[in-house]
Specification:
protein dimerization activity, rod-shaped, Two-component sensor histidine kinase, coiled coil, His_kinase_dom, alpha+beta, kinase, 450 residues
Length: 450
Amino acid sequence: MRMLALIGLFLALLAVAGAAVMIANARDAVRAEMASALDLGIAVGWAEAGRGAIPDAVAALDRLGLRHLRFIAGEAASGSLGEGNVGHGAVPGWFAALIGVAPQAHALTGSDGRVLLTVVAEPQDEVAEVWEDMRDLALAMLVEGLLLLGAAWMAVGRALAPLARIEAAVRRLRQGVYEPGPRGGLAGGGVPELVRLGTGIAALAEELAAAGRENRRLGQRLIEAQDRERRDIAREIHDELGAALFAIKVDAGRILRLSEEPKPEATISERVEIAGRARAVLSMAADVHRLSRRILVRLRPALLDQLPLGEALSGLIVEWARREPEVRWSLDVAEDGTPDGIDGLDEVLRLTVFRLAQESLVNALRHARPTNVSVTVRRWTDRVEVVVTDDGPGFREGPGTAEQGGLGIAGMAERVRALGGTLRIGSDGGQGTRVAACLPCVPAGLEGVA
């Protein structure tokens, strides 16, 4: 409707401008016509006045029927110039006022100075012709304008028809429905700009639907990884911690029985047995302590609560080097001159960086059997990158690569995506495996500002 209103306003302005130009031209044309008619009337009036009596000359001139001219015997009164041509009363007064051309008179005087004849040029006929032309033209323009508005209504309505489908599709997207229907139904018809817009929204809906399916798949894999982690922890507690506690219970019971037997003095064999069982209890207690620390580290790395991130990563590398001395380990921490470096990251990012390195090292040793493993952490002002590479056989997707501990690939991808980062896992130049994560970061203390 606004577009049609603009078209109608343009047509109205065009009509007003055209009418103004026509009225100005008509005013000049009527004046020129009156001057020409007056010259003709003067010439004819002199000719008839020289032949005889003035009344007979006036009658003869009237019989000639000269257009726009009227002849009056003697001097014409000032009030009689506007009279005559009553038959053109259909011309509106406002239009005659717009033309603004008054009757023109010229007096023919004799040798004695007496007015013999007055020639009057009247514009009514000419004004009436101009009025008829403009009225017909205005009617034609009105019909043409209505036809143009009707055609514009149909054309604009047809061109903007996809907007309703696009609006409905966007409403469905806002409601979380990522299936907008057939793509052609959304993108077909209309002007090319709306076709491109509809095609873009349809592609966006398809990408959102694919992202939703991927999120559900990752969520399912994450739940599976969590369940697997719980099963592993439960198995370790049952198999190792339960067995160790049972052995401690047996040894402690035997020591208690030996100590309660009513003997004045323990034999050498009994003292040896008591000492051996006491050492076994101490050994089992140490194993239980190590097992509990391993489980706690898997649940929450205590190093991050005690050390900066850089030292925690160094401690992680040292621990793995102690366990796997045949593997060459390297750690490279590079910073861009930020005041606190990687230690200035917030708690969530610090934990994520540590978990990424921890899980990547576990996967490298579990699946790759490498001889070289390197961990690189680089921090810029706006992001931090974690890269873990090994020289194993390379990464191959498939059922055999399901992660057994830590976050797992699905868990890492979900955590990185939740922080707005990216995670890429693949072969490093066709050999070995490369895990690369890029995480956006905000310096500690500025999270609320962001």
